Amino acid sequence: MIVEGRAVLIPGDDVDTDVMYPGRYLNVDDPEQMKAYLFEGYDPSLRDRLGEDAIVVTGRNFGIGSSREHVVQALRAWGVRAVVGHSFARIFRRNCVNLGLAVVEAPDAAAAAKDGSRLRIDTDTGELDVDGMRYTAPPMPPLVGELQAAGGLVPWTAQRAART
Fold first, then answer.
1. What secondary structure letter does DSSP report for 44?
2. Across the strands, what pairs with 104?
3. Contact yes or no for 124/140 (Cβ under 8 A)
4. Residue ranges, the chain, pLDDT below 70
5. pLDDT at 114
6. For a designed S-S bond to 128, which of 24, 110, 135, 142 qualifies (C-beta 3.0 to 4.6 A apart)?
7. Residues near 80 by Cβ (< 8 Å), separated by ≥ 6?
8. Spatial strand order in the sheet of 133-136
9. What is the pLDDT of residues 119-129, one digit of tens each?
10. Pick from 88, 85, 87: nearest CA to 113
């Protein structure tokens, strides 16, 4: 799958889901309403830079902290197409996979990206283009690609159940 968009840098390493989506908003269950609280405890102005063409670019160990699916749900509600970073906390990566958001660990590409850089990701081959420069990452495993194409684990499971 090809994913293209504009880089939105999230500065820093070890950015915690607890500050990206503070606990006082965990009772919100509609992703459209979650959008208003994304990055609330970190830098609310980041929301103004998101949109339908955004690819979030992160530092090291992005998404540490609690298992807050709200972060990924809100990113998807904003129209974020993918997350590219130096490295990710295991549970954040899994939430991305389960909710159908492309997550790519590509330290060189993440380091090269600037706010507004144009990114192109081929998740099948692992090739990334950042402002015309080529980088590589591990290709997305086929099952993860299926989950992303289906919109996440729940829709993927529903599609499979409907076929049987």
1. G
2. 84
3. yes
4. none
5. 97
6. 135
7. 8, 50, 54, 55, 56, 101
8. 102-105, 82-85, 54-58, 2-9, 118-122, 127-130, 133-136
9. 999 999 999 99
10. 85
Query: How many domains are there within the chain?
Result: 1
CA atoms within 13 A of residue 14's CA, in its CB half-sphere: 0
| Encoded tokens for 141 | 């495993």
Angle at 4 between CA 92 and CA 72, to 5 degrees: 20
Residue recorded with tokens 């979030």: 56
Which one, of 112, 102, 105, lies nearest residue 151 by Cα?
Answer: 102
34 vs 131: CA distance, rounded Å:
31
CATH number at residue 149: 3.20.19.10
- The phi, psi pair for 72, rounded to 5°, reads -70, -40
**CB atoms inside a 10 Å sphere around CB 149:** 14
Q: Provide the pLDDT for residue 63.
A: 97
Whether the CB-CB separation of 104 and 141 falls below 8 Å is answered with no
Q: What proportions of the chain, in percent to the nearest 5, are helix, strand and coil?
A: 40, 25, 35
Whole domain around residue 99: which residue ranges? 2-163
